[in-house]
Amino acid sequence: MQKTIPVWDIWVRLGHWLIVVGILFQQISGGDAEYVDAHATVGILLSGWVLFRVLWGFIGPKYARFSSFPPPNPARAKESLKRVLMRQPEKVPGHSAIGGLAVYLFLVLIILTAFTGMSSSDDILFYGPLAPLLPSAMVSLAGTIHPILSDLLLALIGVHLIAIIWHVTVMKQPLIRGMLTGRKPAFEQEPGDSHPFSSVIFLKGLIYSLLIIGLTYGIIGIYLGW
Prior knowledge:
This protein is an all-alpha fold and 226 residues long. It is 64% helix and 3% strand.
C-alpha cells in the first residue's frame, strides 16, 4: 500500500464542506423572497470564511499555503490539464497546477459574488448592507452582475464535480477520501511544520477563523445595519 501523510488540516477540510453547503443553500434560496434574510446572512458568513482562507493561505500549515501551490500560469495549467486527460497524475500530495488554479478561481468568484450581492438593491424587498455606501450606478451594476457571477460559480462547481468523478473513477485517485481524512499519498514528501493535525494548528485556525468571521459579520451584518 502506498504511504500516506497528513496533508489537509481540519480548517481546509471543514472550509471545503462548509462552502459546499453554503453555496448549495445560496443557489436554492437566491430567488425566494421568503429566504432573503438568510440568503444575505449566509453570503456574509461565506465572505468571512473566504477572507479567513486567504489568511490561512499565508499562515496555515504547508499544504494550505499558497506558496505550496504550483504557479498559476496558463502554460502550467495547460500541461496539468493534459496530464489529467492522459490519466497521468501529478505526483504531489497537495494541489496540482490545475487544482491550485481552481482554488484561486473559487475564492475570487465567491468573494465577488458575495460583494455584489451585498452591494445590490431592488428598492423593494432587498437593500444590501453595502448599497447605502455606493453610488446608485454601482448598486445597479452590482445587481446586474450578481446573478451572472452566481451562474459562473455554479458552472465552476459543475466542472469541479466532473473533475472529481474523473480523478476518482478513471485515475483512481482518492480525492474525496483525502478531503474527509486529510491524508493523501506522500510521493516521498513530508507533512511539514507545523504538523497539519497538531493542536497548535487547530487552535490557531479556531482563533483566526472566529476573529475574521466575527469581524466580517459584525461590520457588515451589524454595524452597517443588515
